[in-house]
Amino acid sequence: MTSRTRVLLLVLLAGAASLGLLYAQAQKKPVIAFPMGYRKWTHVKTMVILTNAHKLFDRFEGLHNVYVNDIGWPALQQGKAYPDGSMFAFELFSVPSAGGAIETRGGRKFLAVIKKNAKLYPQTGGWGFEVFQGYQGTGSLKDMKQCFDCHSAQKRKDYVFSDYVE
Asked: What is the pLDDT of residue 94?
C-alpha cells in the first residue's frame, strides 16, 4: 500500500468517524438542568386536581404549583411570545387527606420544566421539556414529544398553559 493510499484511507476513516459522532450527538436531546431556586421565581398559580371529574386526573392528580423565571415573567404579563431563556417550572405534589380535609402537602411526584430556546428545540415550538421524578436532580424524560403533543393545543399562547392573573 502506498503512502498516498494510506493517507486517503485515513482521511476517509476519520471522515466516517466524524459523521458517526455528529449523528450520535444530533440524536441526543439538549439537557435541561434542574432549575435550582425555582421557588424564588414568580409564582404563577396553584391548582388542585382532586377527582376523576377532571380529564387530567389520571396523570396529574394532586397539588400543582407553577413558577416562571424573570426572563419569561414580562411575556406572561403582556401575553406576548416568550423570549429564549424563558422557563416555567411545574411541581406536582400528592395530596393526602384525613377527615375530609387536606391537612398537609404530600411528597413531590415530579417537577416538570420547560425552557425556551428556538434554535435548540425547533420541532417543539422552541420549547425544551424535562421531568425530574420525585426529588431527583437528573431528568427522566425520554421523548419531549409526549409533552409537546399536549402543549401544541396552546400554540396561540406560545405553547404555554398559564395565564397572567392580577
From this structure: 92
